[in-house]
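Deviations from the work plan: none for this task. Representative record:
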Amino acid sequence: MPIKVLGIILAGGLGRRLSPLTQQRAKPSVPFGGKYRIIDFVLSNFINSEIYSIYVLMQFKCQSLMEHLRDGWTIGSTIRDFFIMPVPAQMRTGEDWYRGTADAVYQNLHLIERTYPEVVAIFNADHIYRMDIRRMLQYHREKEAEVTVAAIPLPIEKSHPFGVIQVDDNWRIIGYEEKPENPHPIPGSPDMALVSMGNYLFNTTVLSETLKKDVESSGKYDLAGEVIPILFQKRRVFAYDFRMNRIPGALKNGENSYWRDIGTIKAYYEANMDLTTPVPSFNLYNWQWPLRTATYATPPAKLIYDQYGREAVARDSLIAGGTIISGGEVKNSVVGRHVFVGSRCLIEDSIIFDHVTLMEDVRIKRAIIDKNVTLPPGTRIGYDMEQDRRHYFVDPSGIVVVPKAEIQKCLIHS
Amino acid sequence: MQKILAMILAGGRVDELSVLTFYRPKSAVPFGGLYRVIDCPLSNLRYSNIENVGILSQYRSYSLINHIGQGASWDMVGRHRGVTMLPPFQGHKASDWYKGTADAVFQNLDFINYHKPELVMVLSGDHIYRMDYQPMLAYHLKKKADLTAAFVAVETREAPRFGLARIADEDKAGGKILLYQEKPAKPASNWASMTIYLFRPEVLREVLQENAKSDSHEFGRDIIPAMLGRYKVYGYKHTGYWGYSRKLEEYWQANMDTLGRRPKIVLREWMLRTNLDHQAIRDRQPAVIGKTARINNTSFYHGCRIEGQVENSVLFPGVRIANGAIVKDSVLFFDTTVEEGAFLEKVISDVDVVIGAHTVMGKRNGAVAPQGGITVIGRSTQIPAGLTIGPGCTIYPDLRPEQFTKKKIPSGEAVQ
């Protein structure tokens, strides 16, 4: 018998550490991989797992996210249970915005109670990965769990920045620590710790009882940090090992276990660069598990000679539609839509968003150029950190970010 | 604003396009690296705010029906807009397959009556061009014409292939049609009909009913000449790119016209709309350009994976070019695979074609070859490795590697 599942995507995060990419948009709507947005990953996971009733909870800077949902994720029109619906904070329960992940769900309990699904799948919108949620649901049932938390084993030394779960031999959760100094290892693998992916399955009754008590009475607003750590003491809460998940059509190189938290500029940059390697660790194009997004009838991309007859060059790169490279060179980069790369340009190890114009002789190394930016002839980025710091944003990792055109103006004038 | 109903003639096969129109009418032939030919008139209609469209289909209409869908790609879904497919139907008396362009419209007069338009536009779905129909419409109204037909200047030596009109020099936009000849041996003008007609509905009804009694039913050959002298028939002169593309060479050239530093067809400006669900364009990832790729004067799209050398070519979504392969002057449709070390010159390959490793196709070495030296490969054919296929060959659809019995196929031959 099919489980009736309601999907809830937590898309309200500010994504401060991804600034300035998040200065005008919520983190889930930051572009990724040339034509996608980060939220496309979780949405594709839901749709490919045949979960078609989805609320997307959002609040900060959600205009771009809502437009993206409209352009790419409008589903179903006649069947009531098929929807992807943006839910901005509406102050239904009082004069507060969403005060945390648990509060966001709590403020929308009426939406859950209205449909009364068997299970509520609460997933975050911040990660790059692919997951067949049906397999996690199966696990949830087999364990007779009331709550299941998706978790990925990471080497202990890499697990500090995350929430680490402690499990018993049966993978029932017996402890949870946010950013621990000494993470508990997984039973049987002393070098590995179990990191929460921020994706949960809740039996509906457990969810509404818990939230009513915790949020309403005790003022606990954070799902990972405040609600889960006490929930496992009374309820059957299990961890689901992400390594067990299999999606159809995956590459044999461990793609199934690919998961990236792209909370920082460096992590975001590296996940994009993963796409440019000869055998990408993450294949965006899988017939059996398509990554969907908003698509426009952009014309084909072109490589053409420039006015001096100089050839354009592209290598080890991802290039989206509408982009024209005219006598310039693009290496090891991810290039979005409607980008123009002019004569004698050299773009290396960089991420270029949509509608960027690079005029003659622009050289860019290890940089992220946000939407709508035009760089005048002779611009150099990534060659002189001192100079870059004066004009743009430079991440501690040395990656230069040129913010969206509109923000850049403010930056220069201030 | 006038209520206009557009009827697109989209059923024709066009023999000269060879195996490309084996499984689809000309209007559904892929074009420009992403689109279908019919996207041109449909996008023109969209941008001209003409939002009620009937599409007269006939030959193997599956591909066309699939492409049009509900018309949402051209924003033609709504309370007062819509696209309707009008395939031929069995008449009351006998099987009345469309017997010509005029007959196709005649058989759908009830559809026109139902819409009660103030103007009927009849236009071909087979041509590659960009045109705002509104000025032509304004001209038609200004002249209080019964019929206005659009014309474009063609080269004099090409003129005998077209319907030609001598147009009175009334103003810059055109004038009364003085003489109309369908494909004359001795052209009296070089203004060629673009097969775009604006009719007053009453007049259209009248002339179609009259024509139904005769045994030839074409707008160009029969309707226009019969109307001259009896009705107000105007010629409207259009300037700009117009791709007739009824011959393989012309079709190839129209694709090449999207390339170059100053392309004749500026797709970025045309902004053609197309159905992104067709061939799953929507779900394909950005093109992947590998370490060994060398790409010159070439367009490509999402889903392409290029590791070899490409020059002066148009690659549709999903085309894969392996390391060591060389592709020149070619148009490769959706999901064509060119395997390692293969060589292609002036090849048009249909959807899902595979060209085996080290196969050499169309190498001309300067020699003259039939059909302009273009080698065309039909849908889903798999060409085995190590073959040599001369220029100007025609390879039929759905062939398996074992069906190629010869290692060498000389110039101009057909394999079926």
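Chain B touches chain A through 41 residues (CB under 8 Å).
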